[in-house]
Write a structure and sequence with these properties.
By secondary structure, the chain is of the alpha+beta class. It has a single domain (2-95), classed as Ribosomal protein S6/Translation elongation factor EF1B (Alpha-Beta Plaits, 2-Layer Sandwich). Helices cover 30% and strands 49% of the residues. The chain is built from two helices and four strands. The chain has helices at residues 16-31, 69-81, and strands at 2-10, 36-52, 55-67, 85-92. Strands 2-3-1-4 form a four-stranded antiparallel beta sheet, covered by helices on one side. It is globular and about 35 Å long.
């Protein structure tokens, strides 16, 4: 298990219940694969530095996790499919 920071930005036009469902779905992907979610930090809606997918704002979510490489790859794959996630990054904290 390695430590990772995961940040993703959700479209600001998404309804509150849909945001919560999306966050829960992504967290479920991790927990069903033996990942330990150490911290979930929802920053809320913030201005983007530049426009992404016709959005000037985004809803930021930051996770601190301990997960396997397989879980990281699956999370990355699922996030790429989700149209409501406009940007994401997964950083290995051990290589910093």
């Amino acid at each position: 298990m390695r430590k990772y920071d995961v940040m993703y930005i959700i479209r600001p036009t998404l309804e509150l219940e849909a945001k919560k469902a999306l966050i829960a779905e992504l967290n479920l992907i991790l927990t069903t694969r033996g990942t330990t979610v150490l911290k979930v930090n929802e920053w809320g809606t913030r201005e983007l530095a530049y426009e992404i997918a016709d959005c000037k704002k985004g809803y930021y979510v930051l996770l601190e996790t301990e997960m396997s490489v397989e879980a990281k790859n699956e999370l990355d794959r699922v996030i790429r499919i989700k149209e409501d996630v406009i940007r994401h990054i997964i950083i290995n904290r051990e290589e910093m």
